[in-house]
Amino acid sequence: MPSSAAHHSPTLNRRGFLRTSLGGSAALVAAPTLVGWLAAADAKAATAPAAFVDDYRSNVVANQTPETNAVVRILGGMAQVWKTGGAWDTGRVLDREVLRANMRYCARITRSRTEAQAKEAFLYDRRHQSYAMIDGLGPLAGLYTSGAKAVTSITTAPDGTPPGKISDTLPADAPAGSALGAGSYDSELGKVAKLVDTVRGPFASGNPAKFSFQYPRPWRMNEDSEVVDTGKKDALGYPVYDSDVVVAPQLLRQRSEDPEEDGGFPSGHTNAFHLAALAYAYAVPERFQELVTRAFELSHTRIMSGMHSTVDVIGGRVMATALTAAALADPANAELKAAARAQALAYFTEKTGTTADTLYDYAHSDADDVYADREANARTVGHRLTYVLPRRGRKDPLTVPKGAEVLLETRLPYLTAAQRREVLRTTALPSGYVLLDGFEQWGRLNLFAAADGYGAFDRDVTVTLDAAAGGFHADDSWRNVIEGDGGLTKRGSGTLTLTGHNRYHGGTVVEDGVLVAGAPNALGEGDVRVTGGTLRADRVLRVRGSYVQDGESTLELLLRRNHGPALTVSRRVLLGRGSVLSLRLDTERPPVAGTTVPVLSAAQLRGRFDRVELDSETLRAVPVHTADGLSVRLVRR
To answer: For the whole model, what pTM was predicted?
Structure first.
């Protein structure tokens, strides 16, 4: 196939679009704009591509090449596995390993699908995607639908194949002022609904990319991603293709009858799910990870239904991540996004009787919440970030795409933009996954992991939390395993909790507020210095280097009966003036009066705490110092 459009004889399709081929990719463009389009393509080809967030408005049907369309450009990894043909059914497989695994996965999933899963797939195929995402709000979901006046007409799935096409429409009995999707702009949550719709705005369609790549739906392909029309028609009048993928019965009549304009890559539903999820997550960051998880789960139903393949779903997620960042970073939407966040916070705190500091706990208070298990959520997301893609090649560092940090703006509000970029970089997937390594590598971002803070301290990190600002400013947790040569300095009046088995080497400094070690190795492998505020250990604590405490500062440890030291220090301990030791009795196995309990063990102990406190009305702690540690004898008051 020639590489220049000048060598082609373009033809019009039945919708009035001009079909031609540029750079090896088939394209649909409005016929009257061909000359201008080609000129724009030539002009852009001569210069470096613009950052996605600066060029996302180029994602319109008239632009269908990497040179003209920012979405097609970031999805360029697909061109490494599939070469678009001159027509929808003449594409060629470039990476048989990936695309064969893709089709085998789809066939296996659809052939083992249960009836309940088929009905679920129907619901999320037909229901407005923005409405479908609301359940990710958990205990806040019911409050959202009522406050936003959000409704749907798709509430049940048929047992078999319905007689015709079904769409989500406004129910006849819907309350006045109700709206489909995210809800009504004229409601208590109208700003949030408008933010969701803005993120899913006119430049967020997957159709230009579908027309560009022309990768068929899985039910139209065989194991080798080749289209084989058997020449037969099924009972519904649809052509029968040689495919092992089984479409859910409920969706057989919901399929498009025009394969030329019904590409599979990228998945439009997946794009919509993730766009809505990230918009909601911006307004309600208390449910950030749960909303991200739901987007992955609903996207998986596209594969379960037989309507899309794994590569389609991955492509939809990649484009949605970039498009959401672009919309949120767009100065035109700055006022709206701030208003949506403020409106959601005010509404939910009022309706739940909480504050900015306690809303998070309420939002995670339902034991029946299907997303209550964070570890299960992490597994769900982890697998579906890559599906069948093998990892090849060396580990290349990621340059975080311009503007991506806005995705964490409300979830990690106490970090600077540069720090949020570091969080994204240090929690990203490694390189080597085709489809994820396209322009700017948006597919490598792992937003679920990023919501849990840094994955590495590659340089020293100073974090300041302000309790007076409320919410995550006042109290947050970093749950990732943190590596790297840098260290952490905690400042500000708020509380930060580290829960990972951390391996960073640069040491830990507490200057103000509270730093909580939620795991024995939470403070990494370096020295620890407490010069102000409080270092608190929820369990036993290990310090791999030296421990120094001075100034007006507190070390808070947990005492447990018949247990080893609450704090073990590999090297020396130096205690200065103003240092306080605060001891808490374990509620399940508290030590009793008359016993001596080990508190601190070290290679060497120098100095003493100015004061030793015990949270008991009946006992007091008498310190017993030695050259290599500290114990307390518990006596009655």
So the answer is: 0.92
